[in-house]
Amino acid sequence: MKRLMSLAAVVSGLSSQAVAQSPEGWAFQFESAYLNQSDADVSAASSFSADRAYLRFSGINRQTSGLSYGMTASLGQTDYDFTGTAPWGRVREESLSFLIAGGNASGMQWFVAPSVDRRAESGASSSDGVTAGVFAGVSWEVSERLRIGPAFGAFSGLGSENGQVFPFFLLDWNMTDRLSLTTGPSLGASQGPGLSLKYQLDDSWGLALSARKEINRFALSNSGPTPGGVGQDSSVPVIVSLTYDPNPGLSFAVFAGAEVDGQLEVENASGSTVSSQRYDAAPLVGVAFSMSF
Questions:
Q1: What is the pLDDT of residues 244-274, one digit of tens each?
Q2: Once rounded to an integer, what is the mean pLDDT over residues 196-202?
Q3: Residue 20 CB: number of other CB atoms within 10 A?
Q4: What is the CATH number of the domain that holds 147?
Q5: Which of 171, 207, 231, 267 has the smallest CB count inside 10 Å?
Q6: Could you give the CA distance from residue 128 to residue 134 in angstroms, rounded to a whole number?
Q7: pLDDT, tens only, 142-179
Q8: What is the number of structural domains in the chain?
Q9: With 0-12 CB in 10 A as exposed, 13-18 as middle and 19+ as buried, what is 167?
Q10: Residue 61: domain span
Q11: In 3D, which of 88, 36, 14, 58 has the Cα closest to residue 253?
């Protein structure tokens, strides 16, 4: 299930390093982003656009032993605008995740992050669209510039979707003093591995190219055209972001790109697919903000 990745992939890179390098004790982050997807043609007579907003608040406590623990709460909303008959409208999401992480003197680091999420169209029952899952992984410092390791995600499903378990690879590779390549989940906001190539222009400005496969499933409204059903919007967003960090506690970003390989699906209450349509590449633009304290 997608966790508004297009926004979260940018947001997670804005100030996660500030928290990770924070002194012992509590550190907090507030993050927000807005994204606009322009019209994407679904067929000769139909198209849709989408506006997405995202808020997240995190708190992490680092102890002298090297153990860290914390919690993240997030809210998101996507407003779909279809020409012709709309399979769904406004989709809301709420997420609560927990994190425990640690390491040792030899450079090994590990984390476990369970979460509970709800994704549903407005008008769905409060119990619809609820899923639970966990991210976990371990990594080792191969050199001063390279950290690698295995990880996995496991999540329950919606509708006809069975629970899924997927492995991925943790990578944090500082190829030069300015160029880095990273992969892994964005906890509490996105599911599944992605890949980001980052270039630090100077102490304040940076560029990044990011991509990730997204599969967004959510419960449909009880009063819509498919009551009790499940909607799905899948795509591969590819974005370029420009970040500005005026100080270690503040980050701003603008980003642009496209959603490619897009597909919309609708399942009825019995789990049968009643509609499946591919859509053309759609332009994306947005802004993001992060504050650490």
A1: 999 989 999 999 999 999 999 999 999 999 9
A2: 94
A3: 12
A4: 2.40.160.40
A5: 207
A6: 20
A7: 999 999 999 988 999 888 888 888 888 889 999 999 99
A8: 1
A9: exposed
A10: 5-292
A11: 14
